[in-house]
Structure formats: C-alpha cells, structure tokens
C-alpha cells in the first residue's frame, strides 16, 4: 500500500496516494473533504489508458504538493522520454496544474484522462461505514462537470472545470493532445465544493485562490511568531514544523469574521473541539495568542443554554464538538453541537485567565464575564451529579453520546487495578484539578477585573474545600499517588496513570505530596524514556499501543512537564522535554497524536501508533509548551519572568520577540554540553538570563 499524501487548509483537506490519485472506499478517509463532507472520492489520472508511476513527491507547503510521475510502473519505465507533473493547491476546494513533458526527439500524440466522481460521504459515514440515504446525480453543464447529492433540504455539489476545456462526460474529462519534441502541454483543473440552499441558491465553499496569496499569509504568520535561535538543529526544525502545522489547522467558523482557532486534527477531527482547541490555545499562547482569543469567543457564542439530553447540553456547558455534515443536519448524531465532555467548561475559565495574564486583554474578560460565570456555575451545580462536590460525568444520550467524557475518552481507558471497568457516573481525578484551578482563576478575574470581591471569596472557599476533600478521597495511601477516578459508590479506581501529572498542573496537589507524584511520573512504570505513558507498566490493561492504556501522548506530556515546573521539578520537566523532542526528530518534526509506550531501551525509534491523527493540534502545540516550560516563561504583572532549565545537549536557546502585555521581549537560556544517553539528549539544568526587549521593555 502506498503512502498517503495529505494537504490541508483549515477544515478542507485532500488525501491521495503518492501518484496524486484518489480511489476512496466507503471506509477510507481519502478524497477532498470540506465542512465534514467528501466532495471528491475519485480522481485518477491516466495517459493513453495507463496509470502513472511515482518518481518523487515534493511537499511544497501545507496547502500545496507537487507529484513527479512517469508512464508505467516498477523500476523500468515504459517510456522514459515522457514525464508528468501534477501540482495541487488546496484552499476550500483545490486547483491542480497538470503538465505533460516530452523529452524525446519526436512529437507525440496522447490521450490524457481524468476519471472523477463523488460519493458525498459524511465524515461520520466514512468512520462508521454508513451508506447514503439521499440521491446522487451527475451532469455535464456546458463548460463544467457537476456531481450532486440531495436529501430533503440538504444539497451539496462538486463542480469541475478545466482550462483548456476538455471533452466532458459524466465520469470525467478527456484531452487529446499533441506535444512537440522538447516541449510540454499544460492544463489547469479546478474542483469547487458547492452548497445549494433554498431556492437553488448556490454558495461556493471558497474557490481556488493564488498560491502566492496563501504563501504570503504563511509568511506573515511565521514572521508574527517569536524567532527561535538554537544550536540544536532538530529543535529548530520541530519549532518551524509546529508553527506551520498550526497555520494549516487554522479553522475559521462562519461566525468568526475570518478569525481562526485550531481545528483538532486530520483526518477525523477537522473542526472545532472544545477541549482540543482550549489545550492548543494554552500551548500556543506565548507564540500566537490570537488563537486563544478566537477560541474563547467562538466557544462562548455556542455555550449551552438549555437542558437537551440528545446533545448532553446544560446551561453554561462548553461544547465538545460541532459538525456541519449530513449526519448532524438530520440528527443522526448529536454534533450540532454536542456537549458531551466534562472538562472543557472548567478549562474555558482557565484559558480566559491565562490569556489575560499573557496579553493584558481585560476587555475580553469583561466581554465574556457572563459566560465565565455560567461556566463556573455549571462546574458547581450541573456537573455535580451526586451532590458531593465533585465533577462527574454520565451521558444522557445512551445511543450516540460519549461514554467517557474526559480526555481519555476511549471505552477501556478507565479501569480498576484488576482490569474491570467501573459503572457510571465517573469522576476522574484531573476533572477535579481543572475545577479547582478554574475556581482559583475565576476568583482572580472576579477580584481584579469584574470588581466582585464577594464572588471571588466564594470561589476561593469552594476551591479550598475541594482541595481538602480531594486529597482525602483520591489519595491511594499504599501507592502514594492519586486514583484515576472515583466510582458511583465512592470507591477508588486505583490504577496509576499519567492523569496525576495534570493534577500538578492544576495546583490541587499539596507541596508535601508533590515529590511522590514526580517520582511516579519519572519512574520506570510511567516514564518510557520517550515520554510518560498514559497507563503504567504492570497495570492489568496496560498495552504499549493501546489508545489510552499505555501509549505516550505528546500533548499529555507537555502539560505534565508544565505541572512539574509549577512545583519546582525543573530537572524532571527537562527530562520529559528531552524525550518528546528526541521523538519529534524521528517524526521529521511533526509529533503524531500518540506513539507506542515501549521502553526506550527496547526501541531504536519511537514506535508509531497505527491510526494516529497527523497533524493534530495539541500534538503540534506540545513543542511550543515544552519551549515555554524549558525557558521557565511566566507572566508576572507587566513583565515576563525567565527561569531556564534546559536539557543537556540542546545548547543555547534564544526566543526572540515573545508577544504579550509587555510588548515583545526576548528570552534565552543554555543547557549543559551535549552528552550521549542512548544517542540523544540527557536532561540537566541550564542557566537563564533576562534580555532587553526590542521595544525597550525589560523581561
């Protein structure tokens, strides 16, 4: 099976084989997708009836790829005097420039054919192997080929045009061409998704635009982010890859006025996710803070306002996921939007406070005061399903709602030591940490910006009470760690997991217990050498390639490292950063959603997880948060504190032009000389200094 080639722009993406061809099956996420619908499922190029072989594929930009092809296959080409180039650019649709080059001494006459088709599968149809319920049609309309799909008021179409115009039929386009010796023939094909509304009104879901414009937009994006100067080349590559992938994943909801937030990941999650968008915005705040502002506004605009069992909606609850395809339109699934998570609501308040600390944007905090208070009310009232002061979850939509509504949302992620699964409701530990942090941060906003000291005092009292009870009920005394969850009877779900690192990040762990937690996180059961496993080695359900039961998630590790720094464990945080950044080098700078939890000494390379999303937003954001953690960047009023602790071998880091309420400042630090440990970086403490800002401010 050939490797897939993916190019994307926001929630529009094209997945093909290495020839640029698309031959999608019902369960194969290849094709042109936009707004959760596959607008093109067949796109196959032939010359004189033959498929082409791949010479090379150039990854030009996240939105543009060039394929170099030749007739025939294998190692001996039928006609080495002929080659073909396909250059594909994706915006909301895509444009393909086709060139046939004759390298011979004689003119050639050829038949160039592009087979085309669309099944208009909803992304959930592909994921769940569902058939279509409406009517597919095809038509040739003068200068264009049109594929369409109707189901009641849901009407989508795909338009295909070419210049020069080919001979059109309902299965594709044919070109009869003559190419002179040492010459070439070119053609431009445009594929445009169309939404057809009431009365037949046609709305192009964006049309092809110049690659030059998109390139300039990417240049502006990169120029606006801090500049990284680093002696260790792979870190520069990873940093640049992260910024480019964040640009690729920018998604502009219809209500955002063109402003962007992070879509969760390709191919399944190219849309707004409450949890993922918030975590990614937190990771990227020191680099591209505008993502956080859009995330906050767009999530606030869709905040729950009623009780709806089908969507698991409550007043004040922040959405989990929103979809735009057929299955959401006809309520075949509840994502219009769906609210089935138990963490995004508290995390919304956490992001609002962290955003203000970095940017000083008090206006947005005032603008979203009602929504932030509603979120805190949800944590206090609607999330407390058993009335005992904890955040619980249990889906009300038994047919299509999510069972596990924490970030480890797979079916077997929450288990006892003996491997059995608890019933519902469940109260996982990190949810309580997020609730604690949200109350403490909400209290700060209430006191300083909303000018409501009584509300601030109430939130702080609630937080202190939660911290006291949590440390009594969740502490596993015989292991000196926190249980993964409580079950409905109050019994501890007592496995050892990476979730305890999120507790350090939230601040709910007393200082007296922090060292025990750090020891577990860096011990051989949890720390693989590449990163922290989601479930500890030796637990009954441990599986190094199990989705949430033994794999390493870069996003998870980045927040664990941030939590370790919060409690002063600089060396341990640097060790996690070293492992994850070493892994990134093997993935060419693009960290996947997850990778195998095998011990590092047992694997020369980090083991790929077979179905990981890539790029994925919070994995893309992980190196950014690790940079912040290594440099010890922390806003303090109108200044930026720098306290670097770098892995050995990373050399000197300079992060220039960090945006925030201080204007733009520079920060740098140095690790110890590179030493070899399994051939990669060994974590040690570095040094840090503060450097004068370009604009004259002080770090």
From TrEMBL:
Pfam families: GDE_N_bis, MGH1-like_GH. Residues 9-189 form the Putative glycogen debranching enzyme N-terminal domain. Gene3D superfamilies: 1.50.10.10. Residues 277-588 form the Mannosylglycerate hydrolase MGH1-like glycoside hydrolase domain. InterPro entries: 6-hairpin_glycosidase_sf (IPR008928), 6hp_glycosidase-like_sf (IPR012341), GDE_N_bis (IPR032856), MGH1-like_GH (IPR054491). GO terms for biological process: carbohydrate metabolic process. This is Amylo-alpha-1,6-glucosidase. The lineage of its organism: Bacteria, Bacillati, Actinomycetota, Actinomycetes, Micromonosporales.
């Amino acid at each position: 099976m050939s490797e897939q080639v993916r190019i994307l722009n926001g929630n529009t993406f094209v997945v093909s084989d290495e020839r640029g061809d698309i031959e999608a099956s019902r369960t194969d996420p290849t094709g042109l997708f936009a707004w959760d619908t596959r607008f093109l499922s067949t796109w196959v190029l032939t010359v004189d009836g033959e498929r082409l072989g791949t010479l090379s594929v150039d990854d030009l930009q996240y939105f543009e790829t060039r394929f170099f092809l030749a007739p025939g296959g294998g190692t001996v080409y039928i006609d080495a005097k002929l080659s073909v180039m396909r250059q594909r650019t994706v915006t909301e649709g895509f444009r393909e420039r086709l060139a046939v080059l004759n390298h011979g001494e004689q003119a050639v006459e050829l038949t160039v054919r592009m087979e085309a088709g669309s099944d208009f599968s909803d992304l959930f149809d592909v994921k769940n192997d569902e058939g279509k319920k409406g009517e597919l049609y095809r038509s040739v309309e003068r200068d264009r080929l049109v594929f369409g799909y109707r189901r009641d008021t849901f009407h989508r179409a795909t338009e295909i045009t070419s210049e020069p115009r080919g001979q059109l039929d309902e299965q594709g386009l044919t070109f009869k061409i003559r190419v002179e010796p040492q010459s070439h023939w070119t053609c431009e094909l445009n594929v445009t998704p169309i939404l057809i509304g009431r009365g037949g009104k046609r709305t192009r879901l964006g049309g092809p635009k110049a690659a030059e414009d998109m390139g300039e937009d990417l240049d502006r994006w990169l120029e606006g982010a801090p500049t990284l100067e680093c002696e260790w080349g792979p870190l520069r590559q990873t940093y640049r890859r992260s910024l480019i992938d964040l640009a690729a994943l920018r998604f502009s909801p219809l209500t955002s006025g063109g402003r962007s937030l992070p879509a969760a990941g390709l191919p399944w999650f190219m849309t707004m996710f409450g949890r993922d968008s918030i975590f990614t915005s937190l990771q990227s705040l020191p680099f591209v803070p505008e993502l956080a502002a859009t995330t906050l506004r767009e999530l606030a605009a869709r905040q729950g306002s009623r009780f709806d069992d089908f969507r698991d909606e409550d007043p004040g609850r922040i959405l989990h996921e929103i979809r735009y395809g057929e299955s959401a339109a006809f309520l075949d699934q509840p994502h219009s939007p769906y609210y089935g998570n138990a963490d995004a609501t508290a995390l919304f308040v956490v992001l609002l406070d962290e955003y203000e600390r970095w940017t000083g944007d008090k206006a947005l905090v005032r603008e979203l005061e009602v929504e932030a208070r509603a979120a805190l009310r949800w944590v206090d009232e609607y999330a407390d399903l058993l009335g005992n002061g904890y955040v619980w979850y249990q889906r009300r939509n038994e047919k299509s709602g999510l069972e596990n509504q924490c970030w480890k949302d797979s079916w077997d992620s929450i288990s006892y030591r003996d491997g059995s699964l608890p019933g519902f409701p469940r109260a996982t530990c990190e949810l309580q940490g997020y609730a604690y942090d949200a109350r403490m941060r909400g209290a700060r906003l209430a006191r300083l910006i909303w000018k409501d000291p009584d509300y601030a005092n109430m939130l702080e009292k609630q937080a202190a009470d939660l911290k006291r009870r949590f440390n009594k009920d969740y502490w596993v005394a015989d292991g000196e760690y926190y249980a993964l969850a409580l079950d409905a009877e109050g019994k501890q779900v007592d496995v050892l997991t990476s979730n305890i690192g999120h507790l350090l990040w939230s601040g709910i762990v007393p200082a007296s217990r922090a060292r025990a937690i750090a020891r577990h996180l860096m011990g051989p059961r949890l720390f693989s050498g590449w990163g922290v496993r989601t479930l500890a080695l030796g637990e009954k359900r441990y599986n190094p390639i199990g989705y949430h039961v033994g794999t390493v998630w870069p996003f998870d590790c980045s927040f664990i490292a941030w939590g370790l720094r919060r409690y002063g464990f600089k060396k341990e945080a640097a060790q996690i950063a070293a492992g994850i950044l070493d892994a990134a080098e093997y993935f060419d700078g693009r960290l996947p959603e997850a990778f195998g939890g095998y011990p590092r000494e047992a694997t020369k390379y980090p083991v790929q997880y077979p179905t990981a999303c890539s790029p994925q937003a919070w994995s893309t954001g992980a190196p950014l948060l690790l940079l912040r953690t290594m440099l010890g960047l922390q806003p303090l009023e109108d200044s930026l504190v720098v306290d670097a602790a770098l892995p050995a071998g990373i050399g000197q880091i300079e992060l220039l032009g960090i945006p925030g309420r201080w204007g733009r400042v520079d920060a740098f630090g140095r690790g110890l000389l590179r030493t070899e440990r399994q051939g990669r970086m060994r974590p040690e403490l570095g040094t840090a200094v503060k450097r004068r800002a370009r604009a004259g401010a002080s770090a």
